[in-house]
Amino acid sequence: MMFGEVEATLPSEAWVTALLSLEGMGPARFAAITNELSPFEAWARLVEGLPVPKGVVSDERVQKWRIAARKLDVEVRWNAMGSLGISASARGASDYPIRLVNDLEPPPVMYWRGHTMPDAPTVAIVGTRKCTSYGLRVAFELGAALSRAGVSVVSGLALGIDASAHLGSISVDDEEIPGGCWPIAVVGSGLDVIYPRRNRTLWTKIAERGVLFSEAPPGAQPEAWRFPARNRIIAALSDAVIVIESRTQGGSLLTVDEAQLRDVPVGAVPGPILSPSSVGTNQLLADGATPILGVDDVLAMIGHIRPRSVSQPAQSPVSSELLETMGWAPLLFDQICALSEDSPDLVATEVERLVTAGFCVRSGAFIERVR
Q: Which residues contact 108 (CB under 8 A, 6 or more apart)?
């Protein structure tokens, strides 16, 4: 079959996918090679050994692309993608996320599994992988509260804060969530390459109840350069970005940078000043980010009114002077006793009550307040 005949049988997304499958073909290189050519024309020139616009790409890299292109059957690859349950939408297609159409760096194609982009308001919850139990609890509860309020939670599905926020969002029963609201994950690998592996179950649940997005074609490995690129999509898809625990550097702060480039408001959850996991978030607050003390602060940021039909879960009643005395830093039992006027026996009983009620957790010898 001649090239022209093959072109007629396949959509534009198939040729975009073929180009993006070439090693080292990131967004900038793709833009350079397709600036004057259609994806099909660029692919045909690679196969036939004709010159292609390449920007700053080396001749050696282009030669590797030519060799790989001659070995790849575009039609077979495209059909295989469909059998994996992965859809692709090129920019301009009706099911391409409208929030990305006029973005500063719109992906040429978005791959997705599950639902398409919801019509609901969207809020990204991001943070460090090396988070504390306090951060995990806040992310979980905020993710659940936003879902109940009809807001879709966006994250990168990383370990730590990202995963906890989405665990919270899917912990809410469907009948508690307004229609048209479901979780959104933007990952840094092909949608058939689960990363990190520990999130396999969560990955599957998001695909079932919400939508998984990626700009990487099927089979793409989680290379380091893909994650900073992925962060721009998280920011672009969101009405606000909320950071829960961040160190002085990391992906969550890169997402903040991308949000600020797009005039997306940024909020941060305050944390203990002695916690390394809260240095970045506390600095964001000092720099003018919106303080987030609960879901109502987030809803106010995006101008969203909670649906009246959505009932709020009852809060567990607790009255404990010890809880207030402990503060938010992890403490040894002896340190808690030193802060309290009660006997160690009474302190031990109260600590057990707080742990059972979910207001404190144990981490080795330490006891930490999480609510």
A: 16, 20, 27, 30, 31, 34, 39, 90, 91, 215
Q: Where a domain ends, among 268, 302, 336?
A: 302
Distances (CA, A) of 257 to 115, 228, 253: 28, 10, 6
Residue 316 clears pLDDT 60, i.e. is over it: no
The boundaries of the domain holding residue 56 are 3-83
- The last residue of a domain, from among 64, 83, 102: 83
Strands 87-90 and 109-114: antiparallel
- Do the Cβ atoms of 162 and 189 come closer than 8 Å? no
Q: For residues 330 and 321, give the distance between their C-alpha atoms in angstroms, rounded to a whole number.
A: 17
Mention every residue, 6+ apart, whose C-beta is less than 8 A from residue 58. none
For residue range 190-220, list pLDDT tens digits in order. 999 999 999 999 999 999 999 999 999 999 9
Residue 6 pLDDT grade (very low, low, confident, very high; cuts 50, 70, 90): low
- Together in a domain, 77 and 212: no
182 lies in the same domain as 288 = yes
Rounded CA gap, 240 and 266, in Å?
6
Overall domain count for the chain = 3
- In whole angstroms, what is the distance from residue 7 CA to residue 192 CA? 26
**Are 21 and 72 spatial neighbours (Cβ–Cβ below 8 Å)?**
yes
Tokens linked to 174: 């469907």
Q: Which two three-digit tokens encode residue 168? A: 């919270």
DSSP-based three-state secondary structure for 48:
helix
Q: Which two tokens stand for residue 59?
A: 């001749």
The CATH number of whichever domain residue 188 belongs to comes to: 3.40.50.450
Same-domain pairing of 212 and 249 = yes
Q: Is the pTM higher than 0.85? A: no
- 344 and 263 within one domain: no
Asked if residue 260 has pLDDT above 60, the reply is yes
Which tens digit of pLDDT belongs to each residue from 129-182? 989 888 988 999 999 999 999 999 999 999 999 999 999 999 888 888 887 899
> What CATH number should be reported for the domain holding residue 335?
1.10.10.10
Query: Measured between alpha carbons, how far is residue 87 from residues 96, 110, 181 in Å?
Result: 11, 8, 20
Q: Phi then psi for 356, rounded to 5 degrees? A: -60, -40
* Structure token pair of residue 56: 């700053």
